Amino acid sequence: MSAITSFIQVRPLWVSQVSQSLAGAQGVRLRFLQQINRFYDLLLQAIEQNDPRQLEPLLVEWSEARSHTDLDDTGDTTLAVLLNKVLLTTVEILQAELTAAEAWEALVAMLPIYTHALAFASQRETQWQVQHVSGELEKTRVELERLERSKSDFIAIAAHELKTPLTLIEGYVSMLREILPPEYSQQPPTDLYLRGIDAGARRLRAIVDDMIDVSVIDNNLLSLNFQPVWLNRLLAALQRELAETVAARRQVLTIRDFPGSNEMTFGDGERLRQAFRNVLLNSIKYTPDGGAITVDGRLLPGFIEITIADTGIGIDPEDQPRIFEKFGRLGNVALHSSGKTKFKGGGPGLGLPITKGIIEAHGGAIWVESEGYDEAKCPGSTFHILLPILTQPPDDKSARLFQMLLGAERQKSLYGKKTR
Ligand code: ADP
Question: What's the gap in Å between 162 CA and the centre of ligand 1?
């Protein structure tokens, strides 16, 4: 008997047992019968023509429709697993129903077809899984992007909405100062109230400005005003600006004279000052009274690395990347004290994202190192800021402007020398 005749002989038994092994539920089994019969026809065709590719269209259909997923009760529903089950059932039937020689002949004819079908099914399924996972990832990415956008839009709208009433408060306070006779406006308790409103409005203004900065950075709209900058001068100015605050917290702020700090580089002085101010204010804020903050640095090829180290509460390694994201403030909001420079004084969590935006707009980088968060042991944190040394402004307009200025400066000195 030929292999084909053997297969035709066992067909009714094969169809019933294979559908039983693949589909536990009666309803599913009935729906599946047509597919099983198609599979059998194609298997015979493949053996007859000695062409294992005959089964491919059906396998493609199965893998695309994932029609097999409701067929297997064990939960193990890959196409390859199902094909293996079909193979096992077939071998069992051939052995039970045919003589050893007939079974052997049928098996030899069938095995290359199954081997090809198995390889093809695994490949299809892997492709399908990769496509599926990529699709899901893409959906998640789009959703995250949408959430990020709404966060950014919310900040921009809220900042805009807060600005109007804030301007009104500031305007009315200065009007009150104008119209009230000095014996009122400069005497307690009126002066206290006016100063209180002033201080509150200033704090609110700083928050609104931060919100605007974050949305400008988010939308890649930060434009830098490149000018010559000397880091030692910038840091010394900040030291003077923060001296009162540092003294109030009985801390010591040391700014070392590190290599490269007195070299001229091009940068946006105002923005860089804002970035360093944010990091220094955080160091003051997250370091207990009496602590130390040290600014140091080193010269690297093409870059200056500035470090701002404190003896404060530290930051858990797993939180370290998070603090540079907007609203990345850590800890329980309810436990934060208020105030911009008080110990653990709360803020909206916008300072470091702005700082990162400014530093990155300069072509630099910022990161933090800390052993971990421990309010008792205070392991401290060290912020690293890497800035490229720019010998001329990166944009053509500023470069031309500075060339003109330098040219004029040179001419002035030449002219000055001649006339003397
Ligand atoms: P905030 O307005 O909360 O200060 P920032 O963006 O400036 O926002 O900082 C984000 C968070 O990073 C802070 O809430 C704080 O938890 C943590 N952090 C920043 N600097 C330090 C530091 N020097 N020591 C410990 N924690 C810090």
Answer: 24
